[in-house]
Amino acid sequence: MLLGEVEEILDIIEPAQFKKIIGPLFKMLARAVSSPQFQVAERALYFWNNEYIMSLIEEHNRLILPIMFPSLYLISKDHWNQTIVALVYNVLKTFMEMNNQLFDELTLSYKAERQKEKRKEVQREEAWKKVQKRAVHVSNCNNNHDTSQSASG
Questions:
Q1: pLDDT, tens digit, for every residue of 101-121?
Q2: 40 Cβ partners below 8 Å, 6+ apart?
Q3: Which of 7, 127, 146, 150 stands 20 to 30 A from 135 (CA)?
């Protein structure tokens, strides 16, 4: 219902007013598109079927695409609902056609960021393994120390 009302407002908004709300609006849409509830995601993705809204998006794609890209890319890889994935592919294709250079930059940046996150995760896991190994070692040393004291006492 909220998304329907937002679309009705966007149908009559002046371009100057639209520019003022781009940040909060598209952050909200990125969250809605990312919703595991497919009806919410689907409704948010239908904004790209509205010609007037599309003209506003196209005019401000350099501001909007960086906000929407991470959510759209992630959904394209692992949303459970294939209809949502298909709609996301259409939106990504539209953005790519609008501004291919920015799309490519965001794709590279996103992939680099994911690689950095994966490396951090591996480092974190290795650090935990070291902590666990050290804890086992200390525990064994304490057990051996306790056993030797019991035997001599």
A1: 999 999 999 999 999 999 999
A2: 3, 32
A3: 150
CA atoms lying within 13 Å on the CB side of residue 59: 12
Q: Between residues 1 and 24, which one has the greater pLDDT?
A: 24
Residue with tokens 């974190």: 124
In this prediction, residues 139-150 reach a mean pLDDT of 72
Q: What is the DSSP string of 87-138?
A: HHHHHHHHHHHH-HHHHHHHHHHHHHHHHHHHHHHHHHHHHHHHHHHHHHHH
Using an 8 Å Cβ cutoff, are 69 and 111 in contact?
no
Tokens 């794709």 locate to: 107
Taking the C-alpha atoms of residue 139 and residue 78, their distance in angstroms, rounded to an integer, is 42
